[in-house]
Design brief:
single chain, alpha+beta, Pseudouridine synthase, 16-stranded mixed β-sheet, 5 helices, globular
Length: 312
């Protein structure tokens, strides 16, 4: 199949793309700040996560910031702000912070982007008499940050899923990997078989293996690391992490595939950020493109690596 987003960029006679910068949505930007047991919309009113909980909930407070979580101070502390960067009647795109689940995990009360959005949309529905809800279209890893797309109706989700199943949306990531990547640009093709929660490298002859393909370009080379831009051609779970690991350049902070990465002092999670998402709007058929600037901890990693000896 063709690539609607890429094809539209190449055909000047078609409609102009509806490009949305990272700081602005079609309607307005909203930010949800949450605690372990609830969340604050803006900073005015605490609302609990709507999913059922087996444990005690945080107390509700008015006019306060997030309730203190009381977690072990040795655990990584991530941003607790979920920003809505694009929204209309058909879909919503958020800038997911690292550490927040994309969808709820069975048996866990941990907040997720899906549950927070659904609570917000349900609140809007009561005021506007609409029947909408957040529906997941694709996922990014819990400890990755960046653009995450949701539909608001089943019909819109169906049309968006068709694009993702055909691998037509443009999905660009930024990643910081170990070592200096010699080739300035290239295509990686590997075959993996999923074993539990991991992708195991296999050969193309394995009938149960799935083909993984991505394209990358080097953005900046440091003394012992490289910042790369990655564009996915397929959509396996953990694909970027698994492919760069197979290449011999594991993603910094990727303790799942490389336990020794837990010792990395400059960042407390995998250095992977969903920086750009581009797809065809399910209703208007225009191209929607959003860019998410680097998360603060990711930017801090890049800055400090540069100071330690970076080169272009």
């Amino acid at each position: 199949m063709g690539h609607p987003a890429r094809n539209q960029k190449q055909n000047p006679g078609q409609k102009e793309r509806a490009r949305v910068p990272a700081a602005h949505g079609r309607k307005h930007l909203r930010t949800m700040v949450w605690s372990d047991n609830g969340y604050v919309i803006g900073a005015a009113a605490m609302k609990k996560d709507p999913r059922k909980s087996r444990g005690p909930r945080a107390k509700v407070g008015r006019g306060r910031g997030p309730v203190a979580a009381g977690e072990d101070r040795r655990r990584p502390r991530f941003s607790r702000e979920l920003a809505i960067i694009y929204e209309d009647d058909a879909l919503v795109i958020v800038d997911k912070p690292a550490g927040l689940l994309a969808v709820p995990v069975e048996g866990s009360d941990a907040p997720s982007a899906l549950s927070l959005l659904n609570a917000e949309i349900q609140s809007d529905n009561q005021h506007k008499r609409k029947r909408q809800r957040a529906l997941i279209v694709h996922r990014i890893d819990r400890f990755s940050s960046g653009a995450l797309l949701f539909a608001k109706t089943d019909a819109d989700r169906h049309l968006l899923l068709r694009q993702f199943l055909a691998h037509t949306p443009v999905r660009r990531y930024l990643a910081v990997v170990r070592g200096q990547v010699v080739e300035k640009a290239g295509t990686l093709v590997h075959y993996f078989r999923r074993q539990g929660m991991f992708q195991q490298l296999r050969s193309a002859k394995d009938p149960e293996a799935t083909r993984a393909e991505l394209r990358y370009s080097v953005v900046q080379v440091f003394a012992e690391a490289t910042l790369v831009q990655v564009e996915l051609e397929t959509g396996l779970q953990n694909q970027i992490r698994a492919q760069f690991s197979a290449m011999g350049h594991p993603v910094i902070g990727d303790r799942k595939y490389h336990p020794e990465e837990s010792l990395e002092p400059l960042i407390a999670r995998v250095a992977l950020h969903a920086a750009h998402l581009e797809f065809v709007h399910p209703r208007t058929k225009e191209i929607v493109a959003v860019d998410c600037k680097m998360a603060p901890d990711f930017q801090n990693l890049v800055t400090k690596l540069g100071r330690a000896g970076g080169k272009r």
